[in-house]
Amino acid sequence: MPKRLKIQDVIYAGQETNIQTQKGYCVRIMTGAKVPDDCDSVVEFEAVIEKDGFIEFIKPPKKGSNIAYLGEDLKKNELVLKEGTLIKPNMINLLAQLGYKSVKVYRKLNIGVITTGDELVDIGEPKKPSSVVDTSRYSLIAQIRQFNQEAIDYGRILDDPKKIQYTLNNATLNCDIVIITGGSSFGDKDYTQEALNAIGAKILIRTIDMKPGRPTIIAKKDNCFIIGSPGNPVSTFSVFRLFVGNIISKMLKCKDFDVDFLKCKIDFDYKKKSDRMHFLPTKVAFCQDGYVAYKINYNGSGDFSALSKANAFLAIPKEVEIAKKGEMLEFFFI
Fold first, then answer.
1. Residue 30 φ/ψ, nearest 5 degrees
2. 241-276: per-residue pLDDT in tens?
3. What is residue 199's three-state secondary structure?
């Protein structure tokens, strides 16, 4: 290729042209414009010296440089998005380029929330010494919306077996998943299992060997999954993330809602008080050698303050009695 070429014409983006480039000539071309068929490289403006209608190369151009060739991004019949892909903003360019104004998607799941307990009061309501603010309801609704699903609030129900049965049955008729908090344990006023039996639900799991969240119930009625969670905020939060998220993933064939366990080094000692698997609210940061988990003052499953300071749950296996500083354990972000 000659070191000096005469500028024959200019091509702008969006311009249709049939320019035939003559020998010893070049064309000025703008970003996004179609390259003439007889040209095989594009050189940046900064890589040439332009004078009196001619350009001189500062360095020889490479064949094929700065040209996006037909089919280099995608081949014909190439799979671009798999079923179960969560469509995110970075994928919209691709769909638009392929001519899709819309695509078939799974509808959002309807997820019902029921909280139970005589002690519960709403935000701003007068409180007695025995009252507890119904925080888990708001937290669950927020988590459902964070997962971009439809939250249906069935409110808080007193510890009345008939009312719980009625509300639970109604929710299963209108929802894909129902979460009912409080009443899943074995106390005198724990009515979740009784209500499930009364409405004809099949109990799949009665307890889970974990802390917090041991008295968790997982059941199914027709096509609706029902999760009976303890009412304490840390229990409710962890049960949603570990189990409801997994059910959402299975129903939508999308792995984005599954818990993603990662490895971290712990920066503190921890002694377990039971032989169950523990999920401990913690603060995880990325350091030079990887993720490190730092201790948060934690007073048990009712400690909403610790939950608000955490960005992860540390998983301490059932067989580990004492976790030592510097050991590697699994965790997941929340």
1. -95, 155
2. 999 999 999 999 999 999 999 999 999 999 988 889
3. coil
